[in-house]
Amino acid sequence: MTTSYRRAAVEELRAQKKLDREREMAERMKKNEEEAKAHDANMLRIAEKEKRILQQSSDDVAAPSAPVRKKATAKKKASKKRAGGKRKKAGRKA
After folding, report:
1. Residue 92 confidence (pLDDT)
2. Residues 6+ apart with CB under 8 A from 88
3. Sign of CA dihedral 56, 60, 63, 69
4. What's the rounded mean pLDDT across residues 73-82?
5. What value does the CA radius of gyration of the chain take, rounded to a whole number of Å?
6. Angle subtended at Cα 37 by Cα 34 and Cα 38, rounded to the nearest 5 degrees
7. Whole-number Å distance between alpha carbons of 53 and 44
């Protein structure tokens, strides 16, 4: 047997949960829309950058510049090897 005040409390909780779920769905939809808008803006920025790169590369192909010469580098000196071959071990007598 359930008393009327318990039934009323359960009904209030169900109504509150329903409102909470609706609010969560609205927040989730708003967040998804914001993410989609940010993604679209990012994709537009990337497309503009790719367009600019393609234009620069086509300009480079059309008018080649003079070849770039490498700088002369100094040769490294060879390291000196130690004379005498193997080292004698300490503690051994000859």
Report:
1. 61
2. 94
3. positive
4. 67
5. 39
6. 85
7. 14
